[in-house]
Write a structure and sequence with these properties.
It contains 5 helices and 5 strands; from the N terminus they run E-E-E-H-E-H-E-H-H-H. The chain is an alpha/beta fold. The termini are far apart. The mean pLDDT is 91.
Length: 182
C-alpha cells in the first residue's frame, strides 16, 4: 500500500509518501513541504498548495491519501487556513478517484507513539525509528505527514473490516425486515 500523508497548512503543507503493509517494515518514498508566501493573496496560496499536491500525486501515484482532520483551535484564522488546505488535498485526491482518509492528530500520535498526547519531538523520533531514517524529517510538518501515512497503513485494514461488518449488519437487518413484511 502506498499512502500520501498530508499535514495541511497554508504556509507549510507537509507531504510524505510511505509504502508498506501493517505488520511489516515500512519504507519512506519521499517527504517534503509545499510552501506558500504568507503575504500572498489567499486564492494564490490555495492554488500553490493545489499545484504542489498535484505534483506529488503525479510523481508518486499513491493508492490512498491520508489527511489530518482539522480540529478546533483557539485561533480561528489558523484553523481556517488549515481547513482550506485540507479541502484542497481532498479535492486533488477525489479528482483522481483516490480514496481519502481523515485522521485526528491524537489518533495519529497514538498510532505512531502509543500516546495520543505525544509532542512533536516524540512523533518525529518515532517516525525516524519506524522508517529507519538517519534523522527526523524537518520541518515538523514533514514528519507529521509521514506519521499520517504510517497511521493509515496501520489502521486501514481494521477500518475496512469494521466497514464491511457494518455493511453486512445493515444488509442482514434489511433482509430481516423484508422477511417480516412478506
Amino acid at each position: 500500500m502506498r499512502v500520501l500523508g498530508v499535514d495541511p497548512g497554508l504556509t507549510r503543507c507537509g507531504v510524505g509518501v510511505v509504502e508498506g503493509v501493517a505488520g511489516r517494515p515500512l519504507t519512506m518514498i519521499d517527504v517534503g513541504v509545499v510552501r506558500t508566501p504568507a503575504d500572498a493573496e489567499l486564492s494564490h496560496r490555495l492554488l500553490a498548495v493545489e499545484q504542489g499536491i498535484e505534483q506529488w500525486l503525479d510523481e508518486h501515484r499513491p493508492e490512498y491519501v491520508a489527511v489530518e482532520r482539522v480540529f478546533s483551535q483557539h485561533n480561528v484564522r489558523t484553523v481556517m487556513g488549515t481547513a482550506q488546505a485540507s479541502a484542497v488535498a481532498m479535492l486533488c485526491a477525489a479528482r483522481r478517484g483516490i480514496p481519502v482518509a481523515l485522521h485526528t492528530p491524537s489518533e495519529v500520535k497514538a498510532a505512531v507513539t502509543g500516546s495520543g498526547r505525544a509532542d512533536k519531538a516524540q512523533v518525529g523520533a518515532m517516525v525516524t525509528r519506524l522508517l529507519r531514517l538517519a534523522a527526523p524529517p524537518r520541518p515538523a510538518d514533514a514528519a507529521d505527514a509521514l506519521a499520517l501515512a504510517i497511521c493509515h497503513i496501520w489502521r486501514a485494514p481494521a477500518q475496512n473490516r469494521l466497514q464491511q461488518a457494518v455493511a453486512r449488519q445493515a444488509l442482514h437487518a434489511t433482509n430481516a425486515t423484508k422477511g417480516r413484511t412478506a
